Amino acid sequence: MDNAVIEFVNFGFQYKSQQKPTLYDINLQIATGEKVLILGGSGSGKSTLANCINGLIPFSYEGTITGSVRVKGQDTQELSIFELSQNVGTVLQDSDAQFVGLSVGEDIAFAMENIAMPREEMLPLVQEHAATVGMADFIKAVPFDLSGGQKQKVAIAGVLGNDVNIMIFDEPLAALDPRTSKSAVELIDNLNQEGKRTILIIEHRLEDVLHCNLDRIILMDEGRIVADMEPDELLRTDLLEKYGIREPLYITAMKRAGCEFEPGQILDDVSELHLSEKQKDQLRAFFSKIQRKTERTQSSEILSVENVDFAYEKENVLEDVSLTIEKGERISIVGKNGAGKSTLAKLICGVIRPNEGKIHINEEDCSDLSIREIGERIGYVMQNPNQMIIKDNTKDEVELALTLRDLPTSEIQERATAALNACNLYPMRNWPVDAVSYGQKKRITVASILVLMPDVIIMDEPTAGQDYRNYTEIMQFVDVLNKEHGKTIVLITHDMYLALEHTERCVVFSDGQLIADEEVFKIFSDDSVIEQANLIKPSLYSLAAQIGLQAETVVSGFIANERRLRQ
Fold this sequence. Notes:
Blueprint lengths: L3 E12 L7 E9 L3 E6 L5 H9 L1 H4 L3 E9 L2 E2 L5 H5 L2 E4 L12 H11 L4 H14 L15 H13 L5 E5 L7 H16 L4 E5 L3 H4 L6 E6 L2 E6 L1 H5 L3 H4 L6 H8 L20 H12 L12 E12 L2 E12 L3 E6 L5 H8 L7 E6 L2 E2 L5 H5 L2 E4 L12 H11 L4 H14 L15 H13 L5 E5 L7 H18 L2 E5 L3 H7 L2 E6 L2 E7 H4 L3 H6 L6 H8 L4 H16 L1
Parallel strand pairs: 3-8, 3-9, 6-7, 7-8, 13-18, 13-19, 16-17, 17-18
Antiparallel strand pairs: 1-2, 1-4, 4-5, 9-10, 11-12, 11-14, 14-15, 19-20
Helix pairs in contact: 4-5, 4-6, 5-6, 15-16, 15-17, 16-17, 22-23
C-alpha cells in the first residue's frame, strides 16, 4: 500500500509483567484518510494495538517488541512520545485518565497551550470545540464533577484542540446516550471526511458505529487479526457470532429467518433496506413462529420514590419524581446524558438525600436509615469503577464487603468465587487492579456488589466497555439472581438492547423529569418519548415496519427467542 500512514510488519508485543505475548505476528497497513473499526472481545489486543500507534507502547508500558510499526514512514521506536503526539491523538476509554485541566475550558485548551497558541486565537477555538460536542454551557465546570457521558464529550473536544493527522477513539460511545452516540459518530465521520484524517475506532457498539460508513473492519482474537474486511462483507459471514461480537439485531433476525443477503444490501439505516418479496415472506413466517407469551404477576412493593426533588447547589437535577418498584422486578432507567438517572440512584442508596419528597424501602422511610443500613438492602454498582475500587488486588476487592461483615472464610471464598466466575474474572483473581483495563475494572465492581446479594441491585451502565461475551455472562448471573433468588434489578443504561433483553419495564428521564414508565417494548414504539429522551429506535422496530408487522410483537417475540437459544 503506497499511501500507508500506519504499517505493522510481523509485529508482536509482550508486556513485561505477563508470561505470554498480547499481540502476535501483526501485519497491517492503514492508508491515509481511511476510517477503520477495530473489533474484538476483551483481551483480544485491540487497545494494545492502538497503544503501539500512539506511543504509549513502549514509552509508558514496557515490554518486548518484535517486528516493527511505522507511523508516517517512521519507526515508532525511533520517535519520542511527544513527536508521535504531533501526528496521533487518542480519546481514552477511561476519561478520568485523560483530564489535565481544572475546568472543561482549560482541558480543551491544553493542547493549544502546549504549542503556545495566542490567547485571542485559542479562546474562539475552545468555544467552537465545546459547542461541537454539546458542552458549550459547561466551559467553567470541573471535569471530574460531570456525568460519564459529559466526560466523554470533553475528552473528544480535548483531542480536537490538537490538530493531528491520525485520531484513535478507544470506546468513544461507552457512556453516551443513543442520540449523542449518533452525533459522536457523525462528528468522527466529519473529522475523517472534512479533515482528511485517518481514524481508528475501538468500540463494542457495532451498530452505532455503522451509522456512518466505514472503510474496513479489523476483527481481532487472542492477539491476532482474524479478519480484515469491508463491513458489508464481514456482516454477511458468521465471524462476528463466532468471536463473540453482537451484530446488528436486524441482521441476526434475517439470518435466523434464513434470508440470503445480496452484496451491498446490509445497511445501518434499515428504513433504506430494500427487501425482496422472498425475504419479506421468510421474515413474516419466522416471526409468526416466535410469538411471546405475556406474563405479568403482581408482587409486593419493595421501593418507592414519592415527589422527590433534588438540586446540586442551585441547579435542579430532579423535579417531582415518583415511581414504585415491586419485589423481583427488572427495570431499566434510560434517558439523555445529565437527565438525572445516576442522581436518582444515589438518592435511593442514601449517598445524597432529597431536598423534597420521601424514599421508602419495604415501607420504611429512608430518612431514618444510615447509608450502611440502606447498603445492606440496596447494592449500587457505580458508573465509574475508579470511584468504587479500594483494594490493590482483584480478589481482595471482591471479598472486601464480606470480610467487613465477618463472615466465615469458607463462605467468603465460595461467594467470591461464584461472583468472579460470573464476571469472567477468576483467571485474573490475583492480578493487581492497576494492571487491568477499564472494562475489567467495571467487572470487578459488578462482582463486588453481586457477592453481597442485596434485595435490590442497581447497576449504572454495567455493560459499558464490555464485549458481548462478558456482557452476556454478567447478565446471565444477574438474571439468575432475579429469577431464582427474587432479587430486584434496576439497570441504568444507554444500551437499548440491554434494556430490551434483560428488563420488562422501562422508566424514561429527560431534563430531570420522569416522562414515561411503561413496558419496555412499548417505550420504543413511542416517537415522542424517543425524541425527548435522546433515544434511538432499535433496528428491529424499523424491520417490523418494512414487513408490515406490529413492532412490539416482532421485537418481544425475537428477544424471547434469543433468550431461549442462549439457555
